[in-house]
From TrEMBL:
The keyword Transferase applies. GO terms for cellular component: plasma membrane. GO terms for molecular function: hyaluronan synthase activity. It comes from Flavobacterium pectinovorum. The chain crosses the membrane at residues 47-69, 89-112, 403-429, 449-469. GO terms for biological process: extracellular matrix assembly; hyaluronan biosynthetic process. It comes from the Bacteria. CDD domains: CESA_like. Keywords: Cell membrane, Glycosyltransferase, Membrane, Transferase, Transmembrane, Transmembrane helix. InterPro entries: Nucleotide-diphossugar_trans (IPR029044). The keyword Nucleotide-binding does not apply. This is Glycosyl transferase family 2. Gene3D superfamilies: Spore Coat Polysaccharide Biosynthesis Protein SpsA, Chain A. It is found in: Cell membrane.
Length: 487
């Protein structure tokens, strides 16, 4: 049988509080008090400087090559237009360009209208159950639980649950240590075998007593005001069914990939999800930190835990699936920019592409699921935003194969033209996320957006086509032991 372990009955004393705060300060919050990403990932490291310098050399070399080869580009365009397939492809490309440009400008407009909801008073804050599922996270789960316990949230309104999903490392030991430290403030559970994150969350949902459920990944750290900011929209908006937190990168001092991803995450969350929030249709509440109204969860819990795809149980994309099902109920899904969570991301290429494959497969599945209700009268008020977001995301997926074929054709016929035009495009397109990050945080770190675009274009372009072709495959792909994780 699954067992609940209660290690200590003592409450959180003042000395315990001091120890928790000291632990958090020394081992977790290596960040500035004003912003969580300033003054980290310094570019003074020789390798960092080499990568950034190489990025700019390649981009400007590409731009110069385009200038020198203008006649060749003109001839290539002329030949393509005169071919049987080239002209239709050009028309489709132009139409997609105008559609994407229009959607982008609309998102910019929505971003400037967006404002996060300020925290409500302690009296108005609802009772909340925080669920932390863990598998092979080692000491990271200790850091996560202590950061949650350190939250500026009324203790009497906070239930903290941690579920070890049959880990093979010392995750359970660190949960027990957190239990000893936190006493009755924390309840821990151990699954008899690994069944997947969805089942660990399901157990937490079944045992939770709060009006709001908050889910936090066991390799993530929350700021002291994250919880109260995350749940406040449920008080101010009765139509709110779920809220997405603002995910930033915790381990961006460790390697180059996290530095790149830090800028990418800021663009994805603080820009894109801000726009989605204005439409009441954030497409995915992230596993790192999300909140759900209890009634909305129980309105789809059976469907969610028993979800299948092509006849097989779904063991990935539990966050996107829950978001979809809550939207389907007619609820709004919002984003809170002031609810920051810091999470670990892969530091090596293998872990990164596996994570992206899992995300892309989930998007394929859930876009199909969303298409079954989003064009119906699924909620009161305007449904334009939800439909636009789905169409935009689906078009990017559907066009991945034609553009992949064109890319290989371009490389085979004119490799120099392909390389130079691609590098120039990266310089132009990536300038917006650079400007966006520099405006919100600092210029030095924003430059990693160029390197990330270069890296993604040449080493991860295959993710979406591969994910579409293998959308039926199961498996988390990155659930391993903690040797490569931050300690």
């Amino acid at each position: 049988m699954e067992s609940e372990t209660i290690i200590s009955k003592q409450f959180y004393s003042s000395s315990d509080t001091s120890n928790v705060e000291q632990t958090l300060k020394s081992s977790i919050f290596r960040i500035n008090n004003d912003t969580t990403t300033k003054n980290i990932a310094r570019t003074s490291n020789p390798l960092n400087l080499f990568v950034l310098a190489g990025t700019f050399i390649l981009m400007f070399a590409g731009a110069f090559a385009v200038y020198l080869l203008q006649d060749d580009f003109d001839q290539f365009q002329l030949d393509r237009i005169n071919s049987t397939w080239g002209y239709p492809f050009l028309i489709v490309t132009i139409l997609l360009f105008f559609f994407q440009t229009g959607a982008f400008l609309y998102n910019v407009y929505l971003f400037f209208k967006y404002k996060p909801i300020e925290s409500v008073s302690d009296e108005l804050l609802p009772t909340t159950t925080i669920i932390v599922p863990a598998y092979n996270e080692g000491k990271l789960v200790w850091d996560t639980l202590l950061s949650l316990a350190n939250s500026d949230y009324p203790e009497e309104k906070m239930q903290l649950l941690a579920v070890d999903d049959g880990s093979k490392d010392d995750t359970w030991y660190w949960m027990q240590q957190a239990k000893i430290k936190l006493g009755d403030r924390l309840t821990i559970f151990q699954q008899p075998e690994n069944r997947g994150k969805r089942h660990a969350l399901y157990r937490g949902f079944e045992l939770g007593t709060g009006e709001i459920f908050v889910t936090v990944d066991s390799d993530s750290i929350v700021k002291t005001d994250t919880l109260r900011n995350l749940v406040s929209p449920f008080v101010t908006n009765e139509k709110c069914g779920a809220v997405a937190g603002n995910v930033q990168v915790l381990n961006n001092k460790k390697a180059i990939l996290p530095k790149m991803l830090n800028v990418s995450f800021v663009m994805s969350f603080e820009f894109m999800r801000s726009a989605e929030s204005m439409l009441g249709s954030v497409l995915c509440t992230p596993g790192a930190a999300a909140a759900y109204r209890k009634t909305a969860v129980f309105g789809c819990l059976d469907e969610w835990i028993n979800q299948t795809f092509m006849g097989q149980p779904s063991d990935i994309g539990e966050d996107r699936a829950m978001t979809n099902m809550i939207l389907k109920q007619g609820n709004h899904v919002l984003f809170q920019r002031n609810a920051t969570v810091l999470t670990n991301v892969p530091e090596e290429y293998t872990g990164l592409y596996k994570m992206f494959i899992r995300w892309a497969r989930s998007n394929v599945r859930e876009n199909i699921a969303m298409s079954k209700f989003v064009f119906k009268n699924f909620r009161e008020g305007s449904k334009f935003g939800s439909r636009l977001l789905l169409i935009n995301q689906s078009l990017k997926m559907l066009m991945s194969y034609p553009f992949l074929a064109f890319m290989f054709f371009f490389i085979a016929i004119h490799p120099v033209l392909f390389l130079s035009s691609t590098l120039l495009s990266i310089l132009i397109v990536s300038s917006f996320p650079v400007f966006f990050y520099a405006k919100r945080y600092n210029l030095r770190e924003s430059l990693w957006a160029y390197s990330y675009s270069l890296f993604y274009t040449f080493s991860l372009f295959w993710i979406t086509p591969y994910a579409i072709a293998t959308a039926n495959k199961r498996g988390w792909l990155t659930r391993g032991l903690t040797e490569q994780k931050i300690k």
